[in-house]
Design goal:
The chain has a domain of 215 residues. Helix 3 packs antiparallel against helix 14. It is globular and about 55 Å long. The protein has 374 residues and is mostly helical.
Length: 374
C-alpha cells in the first residue's frame, strides 16, 4: 500500500489534468499530492509500519529546523497566501510541511526500485501526452504539466528509473533518444543539462569502478559550472543585438542577482516562504532591472529561494541535508537515487517546477537514510 502511494505521487500525478478547470495543470496536482501524502501518513501510523526508532536523529533535527523556521514565519505573517501559496502553484507552507513529512515517512518504507514496467508505462504516457497536448504561446511542448521546463524535468526524473531497470541496450538507447526528443521540443536547457549529467554520472561509475562520491562530486562541479550559461547567454545576446529590450524579461542572471540582494536584507532568518515574489519584485525595482515588469514568483534557483525565505539558517539546513544524503547514498551505492538527485538538483537550480519534482526531491533525501536491500 505504501509503495503504491509513492508510485502514484512520483509517476502518475504528473499525468493529471482537469480539462474543464481554468487552472487545470498545477493546482490539481498539488492537491492530489497533499491528499496522497496524508493517506500515506495515516496508513503508516495505523498499520504499524511507522517507527520513530527508524528515523535518523540528525536528519530529524534538520527537518525539524526547517519546520520551525517556516512555522515562525507563518505565525509572524498568518496570511492565506503564506499558508497555501499563490493560486497558480499552491506551493505554500502547507505543501512544504507535507513534503517534510514525506521525507520522514520515506525512512519507514522498505522501497525497491525494481518495478520496471511501472516506470516504462509512466515514461511512455508522459511522452505521448507531450506530443498530443499542444504547445504554449512560444511553441514549446507543455504536455500534461502545462509548462515546458516542468515537462522536461519530469522526463529526466523518470529516465534513470527506466534505463537502470532495463539491462538491454535496445531499451536504454530508445529511452534516451525519446527523452532527448521531448526535451528538444520543450526547449528546456536545464532538462538537457540534467539528462547529460545523469548519463555522465552513470558512465563515471563504470569508469571509476564504483567510486560513487567521486563521480557525484565531478558531476556536481559540472552542474555548478553550467549555472554560468544564463549569464553568458545574456551577455552574448546584449552584445549582438542593438535593442537590449528584445531580451526576454525573465532573465535568470537578473533574477538571481535580485534574489541575492533581496536575501541580504534578512540574511539570518529570511522573509518567509511566500515572500520571494514580493522581495524579488521590490529589489528589481530598486536595481532598475527589467524583471520588475514581470510577475516572478521564484528566484529560479532552489538555493536562492531558501536564501530569500529562510536566510542563512535555511541554507545551512538544506545543504546539510543534501550533503548527508549524498554521503549516505554513496556508501550504500544507491545508483538510481543518486542519479535522480543529481538530475533534480540541476533542474531545480534553474527553474521553479511542478510539485512532482519537489515530492521526488524530498522523498529521495529521506530515502538516503534507509539502508537499501536492493
Amino acid at each position: 500500500m505504501a509503495v503504491f502511494l509513492i508510485y502514484l505521487i512520483i509517476f502518475f500525478v504528473p499525468l493529471l489534468v482537469l480539462p474543464e478547470v481554468s487552472l487545470r495543470f498545477e493546482p490539481p496536482k498539488v492537491l492530489l499530492t497533499e491528499f496522497l501524502i496524508d493517506v500515506l501518513i495515516v496508513y503508516c501510523i495505523f498499520s504499524g509500519k511507522f517507527s520513530v526508532k527508524r528515523i535518523n536523529k540528525l536528519f530529524l533535527s534538520l527537518i525539524g529546523g526547517l519546520f520551525l523556521l517556516s512555522l515562525g514565519h507563518l505565525l509572524l505573517d498568518p496570511d492565506k497566501q503564506n499558508l497555501f501559496g499563490n493560486i497558480f502553484r499552491l506551493q505554500g507552507t502547507i505543501l512544504f510541511w507535507h513534503l517534510l513529512a514525506l521525507s520522514i515517512i520515506a525512512q519507514n518504507i522498505w522501497f525497491s526500485f525494481k518495478h520496471k514496467y511501472i516506470y516504462l508505462v509512466s515514461f511512455i504516457a508522459i511522452c505521448i501526452l507531450a506530443f498530443i497536448s499542444g504547445t504554449n504561446s512560444a511553441g514549446r511542448l507543455i504536455g500534461s504539466l502545462g509548462e515546458p521546463n516542468s515537462l522536461g524535468a519530469v522526463t529526466i526524473l523518470i529516465v534513470p528509473f527506466v534505463i537502470l531497470s532495463f539491462k538491454s541496450l535496445w531499451m536504454r538507447l530508445p529511452t534516451i533518444l525519446i527523452a532527448l526528443g521531448v526535451i528538444n521540443f520543450t526547449e528546456s536547457k536545464s532538462a538537457l543539462i540534467a539528462l547529460f549529467l545523469e548519463l555522465i554520472f552513470m558512465l563515471l561509475i563504470k569508469i571509476t569502478r564504483g567510486k560513487y562520491l567521486l563521480s557525484f562530486g565531478i558531476c556536481f562541479a559540472l552542474m555548478i559550472l553550467s549555472l554560468g550559461f544564463p549569464i553568458a547567454e545574456r551577455n552574448y545576446f546584449l552584445s549582438t543585438n542593438t535593442n537590449p529590450l528584445n531580451f526576454r524579461f525573465e532573465d535568470r542572471a537578473q533574477i538571481w542577482n535580485a534574489a541575492l540582494v533581496a536575501g541580504s536584507e534578512n540574511p539570518v532568518l529570511g522573509s518567509g516562504i511566500e515572500s520571494v515574489q514580493d522581495r524579488i519584485h521590490q529589489t528589481a525595482m530598486k536595481l532598475n532591472f527589467d524583471a520588475q515588469y514581470q510577475a516572478i514568483d521564484s528566484s529560479h534557483n532552489i538555493f536562492l529561494d531558501y536564501w530569500v525565505w529562510g536566510g542563512m539558517i535555511a541554507i545551512f539546513l538544506i545543504f546539510s541535508l543534501i550533503i548527508l544524503a549524498v554521503t549516505n547514498m554513496s556508501k550504500e551505492k544507491m545508483l538510481v537515487e543518486l542519479s535522480v538527485l543529481l538530475g533534480l538538483l540541476t533542474v531545480l537550480s534553474f527553474n521553479p517546477l511542478t510539485v512532482t519534482i519537489l515530492a521526488a526531491f524530498w522523498f529521495v533525501l529521506g530515502r538516503s537514510f534507509v539502508k537499501t536491500e536492493d
